[in-house]
Design a protein that fits this description.
heterodimer; A: about 240 residues; B: alpha/beta; TIM Barrel; 8-stranded parallel β-sheet; 14 helices; UROD/MetE-like_sf (chain B); Uroporphyrinogen_deCOase (chain B); transferase (chain B); uroporphyrinogen decarboxylase activity (chain B)
Chain lengths: ~240, ~350
C-alpha cells in the first residue's frame, strides 16, 4: 500500500528533526518508489525539517550535537534522492566561501553555519580550517563569490579577518563579508569593515540573506547534484 | 600604584577561603599563555619546557602582582599525555591535531596518565615547582587541568564526540571514566608539587550541549573530581566559557566552590546560583583586554563589581576567559589598577 505524498513528506521532515538517519534514508527510498518528485521531497520534506531544527536551535531546545545529527539525517536522505534529480538546473544561487581563519583549527561553529546556509539555499564552498588569508581571497575571486564567511574561536586569530577584508578590497573583489565566532562582537565586525556579523548559525541565515539582498526566491541549493559536494566529510571537515 | 595592597595575594586568597576579613576582593585576570610575554617568549617556546613556563610566570607575577598565578597552555594537555597528537603553532596555544581514539578499538589502548612521565605533563610540573620555590610565599600557584569532558573530547575529536552523546553513550562513559582517573592522578601530582589545581570544562559549555546532556555525561564526573579536590581541603574551581546560563545550575551542583564564567550576565548568575557558589568573571577578553583601552576596561571592571561584588558567596574580579596573548601592557595595568581601587572593601565605585 502506498502512502500519501504529504504523509511521506512529513515523515522526511520528522526524520531530520528526530536525527533518524535510517528513517530519512528509508523514506527517501519510498519517495522514489512512490514516484514523488525528489526535488519536492527535499524542499518540502528534508529541508523543511531542517528549518524546524534551526528554529529549535534558536530557541535553545537543540544544541550542537542535535544539529550535527539532524544534518546527517538530512544529507543521508539527499544522498538517496540525488541520482533522481534533474542533471541541470537554471537557478542562480548565491555563492558563499566559508572557512576558519589561519591559526585556528576549531571548526564546529563554521560547520554549523555551513549546514544552515546550505539548507537556506546558498552554494557553499568550504575551505576548511586554518585557512591562509590568500586562499579566501583567491577563491572568492575565482568564484566571484557573493559572500565570504570568516570564523574563529580564538582571540589570537581574529585580526586575520581584518587582513582578509583588506586583501579582498585591494584585489578589487566585490564579495561581501560576514564574520562570527566566540570572541567576535558586532563592534569588532564593524571596526574591521565586515558587512555583517552573526552571533550563531541560526542568525547567520538571516544576516547572509540581508547582505546578499536576496529579495527574490532563493532556491534550495541541495537540489542541484553537483552542489551536494558540500556533503559532510569533504572540504576540510573532520 | 595609587592603591597599595595590605595583604599578599596568598594571604588574601587564604583569608577569603576561610571567610576571614580581606582588604579587597581578589583580582584575577586569567593570565595563561599571556605570561610568555613577560620574558618575550613565543608561546611555543613558553610551552617547550618547565623552566621557560615557570620563569615566565615568575616574571609575570613580579610585574603585575596578580592574585592567582595559573600554569596552563592548553585544555588538551591531559589528552595529549594520553595519546592525542597536538599541533604547536609558532606563537599560539597548542591545538588538537589528531585525536587518539580514531576507532572504537583504540579504547583498549587508553590508560589513565602517569603525570611523572606522560606527554608534556612533566613540563607543567616543573613550572609549578619553580613558581612555588620562587614566589610561592606570596601567591598560590594554580595549575589548570582540562576536566573529564573536555579531555575526552580531545581524545575523540570534539565533533565526533558530541554526536556520540546520542549515538554511542557507552563510549562516552568509557572515555569519561578513564579521563576522570587521569584528572585525579594529575590533581595528586600537582598537589604534591605544591600547586592548587583547578579545572576547566569548556566543551561542556551551554553554547555546545544541553543541560540534559550535562547532567548525564558531565556532572557525575565533575562531582568525583571536586570530592577528590576537597579531600585535600582545597576549594574546587570550575571554569566554563561561552554561554553558561543553561548549565550554571548544574555547575553549582558539581561541588565546585567557585564558578569562573564568561558569557552570562553576572546579575543573572548571582540570582541563579549566588547563594551556593562564589562567582568569578567575566570581563570580555576580546572587546576589553585585547581591543579595549584603559578607560573602557576600568568601566568594565566597575560594571562587573556593580553587578557581582555583593554576591552572597563571594566574587572574584576576573576576565571571562583567557587573557589574549597580544593584550597591551597598559590594558593589563588598567584592569589590575581598577580592580585594586574599586574592589577594596567596602565597595565604593566612585
Amino acid at each position: 500500500m502506498q502512502r500519501e505524498k504529504t504523509d511521506i513528506l512529513t515523515t522526511l521532515a520528522q526524520a531530520v528533526i528526530d536525527m533518524d538517519i535510517d528513517c530519512a534514508r528509508e523514506t527517501a527510498a519510498e519517495v522514489i518508489r512512490c514516484k514523488v518528485d525528489p526535488y519536492t521531497a527535499i524542499m518540502d520534506g528534508l529541508a523543511k525539517g531542517m528549518d524546524k531544527v534551526n528554529e529549535l536551535f534558536e530557541n535553545e531546545e537543540y544544541f550542537v550535537p542535535e544539529i550535527l545529527l539532524c544534518a546527517d539525517a538530512m544529507y543521508a536522505g539527499i544522498e538517496v534522492l540525488k541520482p533522481y534529480l534533474p542533471k541541470e538546473t537554471a537557478w542562480s544561487k548565491k555563492k558563499v566561501v566559508i572557512g576558519v581563519v589561519k591559526g585556528d583549527t576549531h571548526d564546529i561553529g563554521k560547520n554549523l553555519v555551513k549546514i544552515m546556509l546550505d539548507n537556506a539555499g546558498f552554494e557553499m564552498h568550504d575551505l576548511g580550517r586554518n585557512v591562509p588569508y590568500a586562499k579566501f581571497v583567491d577563491t572568492a575571486g575565482e568564484l566571484r563569490a557573493d559572500l565570504v564567511c570568516l570564523s574563529t574561536l580564538m582571540t589570537t586569530t581574529m585580526d586575520g579577518m581584518h587582513v582578509v577584508i583588506e586583501d579582498l578590497k585591494k584585489a578589487g573583489i566585490a564579495s561581501k563579508v560576514m564574520v562570527g565566532g566566540g570572541p567576535i562582537s558586532p563592534g569588532f565586525a564593524r571596526n574591521i569593515g565586515a558587512d555583517g556579523y552573526a552571533k550563531n548559525a541560526a542568525e547567520a541565515v538571516k544576516v547572509a540573506n540581508d547582505i546578499v539582498q536576496s529579495n527574490h526566491f532563493s532556491p534550495l541549493i541541495l537540489k542541484t547534484p553537483e552542489l551536494v559536494s558540500i556533503k559532510r566529510g569533504q572540504g576540510g571537515t573532520r | 600604584m595609587n592603591s597599595p595592597d595590605e595583604m599578599t595575594p596568598k594571604e588574601r586568597l587564604l583569608a577569603a577561603i576561610q571567610g576571614k576579613e580581606i582588604d579587597r576582593l581578589l583580582v584575577s585576570p586569567l593570565i595563561l599563555n599571556f605570561a610568555s610575554r613577560s620574558l618575550n617568549l613565543t608561546v611555543s617556546d613558553f610551552c617547550a619546557n618547565g623552566k621557560n613556563m615557570g620563569d615566565a610566570n615568575i616574571a609575570c607575577f613580579k610585574k603585575y602582582r596578580h592574585d592567582i598565578v595559573y600554569i596552563f597552555s592548553t585544555t588538551s594537555t591531559l589528552a595529549e599525555a594520553m595519546g592525542t597528537r597536538m599541533y604547536f603553532p609558532e606563537d599560539d596555544a597548542p591545538q588538537v591535531e589528531t585525536p587518539f581514539i580514531q576507532v572504537r578499538e583504540d579504547l583498549k589502548k587508553l590508560r589513565p596518565v602517569d603525570p611523572e612521565k606522560d606527554g608534556r605533563i612533566p613540563v607543567y610540573l616543573e613550572a609549578v615547582k619553580r613558581c612555588v620555590d620562587a614566589i610561592g610565599n606570596d601567591v598560590f600557584i594554580v595549575p589548570v587541568i582540562g576536566a573529564p569532558f573536555t579531555t575526552s573530547a580531545a581524545l575523540r575529536g570534539t565533533e565526533r564526540f558530541i554526536k556520540e552523546l546520542y549515538t554511542d553513550p557507552e563510549l562516552i562513559h568509557t572515555l569519561m571514566k578513564v579521563a576522570t582517573q587521569s584528572v585525579k592522578n594529575l590533581i595528586d601530582a600537582y598537589v604534591k608539587a605544591g600547586g592548587v589545581p583547578v579545572t576547566v570544562e569548556p566543551i561542556a559549555t551551554g553554547s555546545m550541549i544541553s543541560e540534559k546532556h550535562f547532567r548525564e555525561f558531565v556532572l557525575p564526573y565533575l562531582k568525583e573530581v571536586y570530592s577528590h579536590i576537597h579531600s585535600y581541603n582545597l576549594p574546587g574551581v570550575l571554569h566554563i566559557c561561552g554561554k553558561t546560563k543553561r548549565v550554571i545550575q548544574c555547575m553549582a551542583e558539581s561541588g565546585a566552590d567557585i564558578l569562573s564564567i564568561d558569557t552570562i550576565d553576572l546579575l543573572e548568575a548571582k540570582e541563579l546560583v549566588g547563594e551556593k557558589v562564589c562567582l568569578m568573571g567575566n570581563l570580555s577578553p576580546a572587546d576589553g583586554m585585547l581591543k579595549g583601552n584603559p578607560e573602557i576596561i576600568t568601566a568594565m571592571v566597575k560594571d562587573c563589581l556593580a553587578k557581582a561584588a555583593d554576591n552572597p558567596k563571594g566574587y572574584v574580579v576576573a576576565t571571562g576567559c583567557e587573557v589574549p596573548i597580544k593584550t597591551p601592557h597598559e590594558n593589563m595595568i588598567a584592569f589590575l589598577e581598577a580592580g585594586r581601587r574599586f574592589a577594596r572593601l567596602p565597595i565604593n565605585l566612585n
